[in-house]
Amino acid sequence: MTCPVLNLDDVVIQTATPAGAPQGATAERYDLRWGEIASRIGARQLGYNLTVVAPGKRACPFHSHRAEEEMFFILEGSGELRHGDARYPLRAGDVVACPTGGPETAHQIINTGSTELRYLAVSTMAPAEVCEYPDSGKFGAFAEGTPTHFRHLGRIADACDYWEGE
Fold it and tell me: Domains in the chain and their CATH numbers?
């Protein structure tokens, strides 16, 4: 049986590569480092990770989720939350809710401080997800499955007719 307790000091932080990017690739403004927690403590329907972001960086692009809700708990450092059209300061002890929706719920955490920003990220784990990226006009469609996963990034402007090619 998996132990349901894990101390954050025992979380191994790794540099992550976004879906569709070459291994080890990150964009200049981003610092995608995180440590997996959920599978280590036996979680089944929620995802947990410890995210670490360098000063002046962000972990991911401004995005919204159609299926998964997220919550962030700021552990150390300071930053800024972009949420829809608004911006909010963040500091240790803050709890952030990011419900499902479109551009009005798009979100991004930016480290505006001078030290690392560390936060606990918690999300529902939907078997299929669509993320939208308002800044770039992209979307991502993701589905877990056997034997393979489905992952596709595209631009909303490239939509085609339902019957095209049929």
Answer: 8-126 (2.60.120.10)
Q: Which of 10, 6, 19 is nearest to 152 (CA)?
A: 19
By CB neighbour count within 10 A (0-12 exposed, 13-18 middle, 19+ buried), where does 146 fall?
exposed
- Tens of pLDDT, residue by residue over 29-43, are 999 899 999 999 999
CA 97-101-105 angle, 5° bins: 50
CA–CA distance, 117 with 143 (Å, rounded to integer): 30
Contacts of 92 (CB under 8 A, 6+ apart): 74, 75, 76, 77, 78
The angle formed by the CA atoms of residues 76, 79 and 85, to the nearest 5 degrees, is: 145
Name residues of the chain where pLDDT drops below 50: none
Residues in CB range of 110: below 8 A, 6 or more apart: 57, 58, 79, 80, 81, 82
Q: How far apart are CA 83 and CA 31, in angstroms?
A: 19
